[in-house]
Structures are given as structure tokens and as C-alpha cells.
Task: structure prediction
Amino acid sequence: MIRALLLGLAAAVAFTPAAAQERTWMLRREPDPAQLAYATPATDDWVVAFTCREDSGQIIAAFPAAQALGVRQENGLWLDDVGRPAPWPISVTLSSGPYQTTIPGEAIVDASGEGSIVRVEFADRAPVAEAFADEGVIRLAALGAVVEPPPAPRGELRGFFRYCR
Result:
């Protein structure tokens, strides 16, 4: 799912061969849901991705973490060390400006079977989201992973939040 998100974003962004080696903020509003990601175009290299459905007021953030919660597969399902199937409930901390919140999220196995993908849903009007929308800076942490992308460009950020609201 995340790989498809990033490939769709990469297809929507024109870039030169030199720029293909650098991470950048990418925004795609169509088709719904809108997607804003900090990633390297046309690769599997990504830091964080945000999605939202038009006028939903809800944002889903996803980012990779090196810690693998899935330890084995049975009947096509990934299980953790006590036999629970994915997705696994976790806590995710979001910070922006003076605001910080820790909320429930979930982890799934990443496509390679190593590490996890962290997902968390939050309201676009939450104080952390408002600070992100205003300042372009956000920090996400879970499973020992800390994601702090560079500030998002105002144009892409405003376009994303307008779509979500």
C-alpha cells in the first residue's frame, strides 16, 4: 500500500535524474485520498507519508520503523511473538511547535518482512496538526523510530490541509 502511494506520487512529480537521488516533499490530490510524502521519487525510499480523504478532517500518517513486531507467518497472517495477528496496537507520539500528544496507532509488517510500518490517525484540527499546518514541522515517534523530516513547503502543506478540511 505504501509503495503504491509513493509510486503514484513519483508519477505525479516531474524530476530530473539528479533530483531522483534526493528526498523531496511530494503532494498528490487526485485520486482521493490526497497524499503528502517526504520521499525519494521513483524509489522505495520514504521517510513519512500522510493521507486524507477529501473533507474528512482526518489524517493518517505512516512511517517505517526498524523494529519488527511480526516474527512468523501462519496461514498467510503475520504473528507477533505471542501469536497475535497484525495489525498490532502501539502508541505513537506526534510533536509540532509547542504541542505534543501520544495517541494509539498500529504497526504492520513492512513489505520486506523486516521492520514495521507505523500508522496513526489524527484530526486535522488537533493542536499538533494545526502547528504542522502553520509551521511545516512535525516529529513522529514509535517503536524506537523517530521521524523528523525537514519543513514541508508551504504550498504543498496548505494544499494538503485544504483538501482534508
User: Anything to note?
Assistant: Residues 2-164 form a domain with the Immunoglobulin-like fold (CATH 2.60.40).
